[in-house]
Specification:
Layout lengths: L1 H29 L2 H15 L1 H5 L4 H17 L12 H10 L1 H11 L5 E9 L3 E9 L5 E11 L2 E8 L1 H13 L2
Antiparallel strand pairs: 1-2, 2-3, 3-4
Helix pairs in contact: 4-6, 5-6
């Protein structure tokens, strides 16, 4: 009987260690920026811009609001402004303010864009993520997101659209 008890105790100890390791790995993965970005994309698909704001810092939410105001002002993403725009007016918007225009276009189509992760570099409290997006032949590319950990949750703190601008300018030049 003593041998049987020892075997049961040993097997139980091994199982307890394996369960603890599995829980630890899951908690580590769930606390990663990659997991947070999957949740962000899911919320964006279901709630649009509000889903993005729910996962953004206060400072970045203010930037989103500025872009939303720009989009309203220019009629980007509305049935009256977006559908009726011809190529020349879109090109004029790009010439006027490329970063704002691209951001407004992305926000106006945020639910319908296919999002992906190209690269993730992170430390304990910050992360740099290269995100891919694909909506159409003319609206696709990559951009970098800076994330910070606030209150135990990863949040978007800034977006660098400089790579998008290169793609947009390439697309503009292809019209000529």
């Amino acid at each position: 009987m003593r041998t049987r008890t020892k075997v049961i105790i040993a097997v139980s100890a091994v199982l307890a260690v394996l369960i603890a390791v599995a829980v630890g790995v899951f908690m580590y993965i769930k606390a990663s920026p990659e997991w947070a970005l999957k949740e962000i994309v899911s919320d964006i698909k279901s709630d649009g811009i509000e889903g993005l704001k729910a996962h953004s810092t206060e400072a970045f939410c203010k930037k989103i609001e500025k872009i939303e105001n720009y989009a309203k002002e220019k009629g980007i993403g509305t049935s009256s402004g977006d559908d009726g725009q011809d190529t020349k007016s879109r090109l004029q918007y790009l010439k006027d303010d490329t970063k704002k225009y691209i951001a407004a276009e992305l926000l106006s189509k945020i639910k319908d864009i296919d999002w992906g992760l190209e690269d993730v570099r992170h430390g304990r409290k910050s992360a740099d993520v290269v995100v891919t997006f694909d909506y159409s032949k003319d609206l696709n590319g990559t951009f970098e997101i800076n994330m910070v950990k606030e209150g135990g949750k990863w949040k978007i703190d800034n977006v660098d659209l400089s790579k998008c601008i290169g793609s947009a300018l390439k697309s503009i030049l292809s019209f000529f």
